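Reopening this ticket.

The earlier resolution said the output was attached, but the attachment link was broken on my side. Pasting everything inline this time so it's all in one place.
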Amino acid sequence: MDWINEQAGFLWLILAALFAICELLIPGVYLTFLALGAAATGALALIFPELGPIGQFISFAAWSSVAVLVGKRWYGNNPVPSSDPQLNDRAARMIGQTVTVVEAITGGTGRVRVGDGEWPAQGPDMTAGAKARIVEVRSGIIVVETLDAIASPAG
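Inline output:
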């Protein structure tokens, strides 16, 4: 057991390298923070060999947490640019699409066809088969307006 305590710093550095390699193979940014925590703990364990296993685990948790908080702030202030920023925002991608009313919108509610599916809809009264444009998506309900409302805005 003495060997493990004496070599703990190197074990933490090896763990840090393994986390970094896994991050390269399976990108997702999360293992980077654990690698930083393990590397800091490894350095501390080499400098202070009397740190002990509990101190090392506390150090790992603390340094990993600090790395996560710093990374969260960094990525919040410096978002990664995307060629399609709405890629994972299905509702935002729907706005502006022309849809067909499949169940007449009466009293403000009905159904519309979006792609190959039907969605509940809200909007002005329209008959089945009418064309409409999506202006908003609220809690899974498509909000539409008539196409002529766009062509001749009120005013």
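Reporter confirms the inline version is readable. Residues 52-77 form the longest helix (26 residues). Residues 111 and 120 are 4 Å apart (CA to CA).
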